[in-house]
Every structure is written in structure tokens, then in C-alpha cells.
């Protein structure tokens, strides 16, 4: 390359300091000695390959005992629920209660032979905002159990997805790796290969899939998102088979579905004790079908559950007495306006006393 007269040149190479020399005259060869310089690599980042999604989930499961509470614990629970049928608001209410979770609780349906540990949930305050029509058959919101009930609000504790032996029952994918400030987080997707009881923890599901947001530093799940879909063919077949038999199943299968699906989102945060807990659980259900021999329905429900850890789990409830005497009905929790006028709702002011009943 021909240059006009002696010209300053900068010569650089990866890992060496930049050298400044004069261009040679004519066709002379130019030899430049470069000095190694470690700081020249400061701006060079060589990313390492992320671990496989299976390895990430194995690390998540291995660190659950360190990341999440393993002893008995209790939380205050604020709930807001709303149910509509077609375009009519059928029910809306908010409650405040106390939830006690025993150390051995792992199955929201009761576990093998319904003999597993169970949570104890006591509603202490209730504020009904709207109520129209007769009682709503909760089975018509079949998959809504996942996003509505406090016993299913902590999937890291109760979902088979977070059991090492069950990982083979899922298709796992690493969708992305990105930074949130100084943190690196993984976005994983999962889908049950077969949505049976071993992969979902319950029955009659046609699909179970979703996503997880996992923090790399401590392998903790920060967010859980899931889509539950009912196996309508299996449910409808059972409903028609048991209709008119006057059995417990006949009382359960009183409707058939064209669709039933629930999205369930849970946010986890770290508590004062350094362990993560489910701070917020939101479930949205859409259910369409008809009651056998009666009218069609199109239910839409929203359930928001906010949790605040309490300092003491308290004593476990006394075991239920085994007796043939019919159980005494639990008295309805009365509405106390003085409580709700001062209560600080974690989700914001849903109902101002001056404008809502």
C-alpha cells in the first residue's frame, strides 16, 4: 500500500498494546514489535455455553431444601375472586385468612390414598361485593382448582414437575438466557408428555405446560406460568356413563364440556428468613359447556391470592374426629365494615367502602 511520505500508523492485535510507527519509504519492509497487554482483553467476553434445561431443573430441585421453607409455616392470605357466566357477574368477594402449611405437605390432592399432609386454611374476614343467582357448581370450573385454591398456590412445593424422578415425564427447553441487572436468569419451557396423575398430580387433564424463570446464582424459581387443559373427551364420557346412577360420581359429573382451561401464574420472592415463598398466585379460568339436561354455561373466573409470611406457624389443628354424626356446618364469616375500611389490600384498593356494598 503506497502512502504519501512518512505516515503515522497504529498497529494492534488482540491481546497486545497498540503500537504507533512511521510508514516505511518505498518498498521497505516494516517490522513492528508488539507488547503483550492483559488489559487489552478487558472488553472481550467469551460466553460459555449455558447448561442443558435438564441440568438446570436438576439444580433447581437439588436446591429446593435450601431455597424454600421446609418446616411448618403460616401466612396471611388475601384473596380476591370474581366469577362471571356469559356477560353476568355472578360472584365477587375478597377474604383475609390464615394458612398453615405442614412440613410434609407435598400433594394438593391429598397424595396416595388421600393420606398425605394437608394445609389448614381459616377464613377470618369476608367481604362479598356481588352475588347473583344460585350457587355455582365448582366442578364447572374443573381446572380452576389449580389457580383458585390456596392448597395449589405453591407449585414448587406441590407440582410433580419439581420431583427429580418425574423430569423424564416432561419435555424441557431452554428458551433464552438474559440478564436482569447483575443477575443472569434462564427462561425454561416445559410440557408434560402425557398429562396423567404422575405428571400433573391430578386426574382428567388433557394438557399441562408452561414456563419457568430461574435465577442462575442460586437456582431459584422466580416465576411459574402454567396452562392447564381439561381432557374433555374423558370427562364427558365419564359424565354420560355415570348419569342417573345416584352415586358420588353422578353428583360430580353433572355437566359436559366443550372446553375448560386455566392459566396459573405464581411470583416467588425472598422472605426475611432468606427463603423464597409464593408472594402472588393468579388464576384465570375459561369454561364452556352445559349442565346435563339443562342450560349451557360459559364461565370466566379470576382468582388473586396474596401471601404474607407470619412469624409463627402455631400448633397444628386437632385431627378430625372419626364419627358417624353428620359434620356441623361451618358458620358463615360475617362482614365487618370496620375491618375493611382500614385494611391495606396488597393488590390495591379493589373496593372503596363508599361505592361498593
Topology:
Blueprint lengths: L7 E4 L7 E4 L30 H10 L1 H4 L5 E13 L2 E14 L18 E12 L13 H4 L6 H4 L11 E11 L2 E10 L4 H4 L4 E11 L4 E11 L1 H11 L5 H5 L2 E16 L5 E16 L4 E14 L27 H4 L17
Antiparallel strand pairs: 1-2, 3-4, 3-12, 4-5, 6-7, 7-8, 8-9, 9-10, 10-11, 11-12
Short description:
The protein has helices at 53-62, 64-67, 145-148, 155-158, 197-200, 232-242, 248-252, 337-340; strands at residues 8-11, 19-22, 73-85, 88-101, 120-131, 170-180, 183-192, 205-215, 220-230, 255-270, 276-291, 296-309. The protein has 357 residues and is mainly beta.
Low-confidence stretches: 351-357
Q: Note the main sheet.
A: 10 strands, antiparallel
- Give the overall silhouette: elongated
Specify the oligomeric state: single chain
**What is the count of DSSP helices, taking H or I runs of 4+ residues?**
8
Report on this structure.
The protein is mainly β. It has two domains: 8-41, no CATH class; 53-316 and 335-340, no CATH class. The protein contains eight helices and twelve strands. The protein has helices spanning 53-62, 64-67, 145-148, 155-158, 197-200, 232-242, 248-252, 337-340; strands at residues 8-11, 19-22, 73-85, 88-101, 120-131, 170-180, 183-192, 205-215, 220-230, 255-270, 276-291, 296-309. A ten-stranded antiparallel β-sheet has the order 5-4-3-12-11-10-9-8-7-6. It has a two-stranded antiparallel sheet with strand order 1-2. The longest helix has 11 residues, at 232-242.
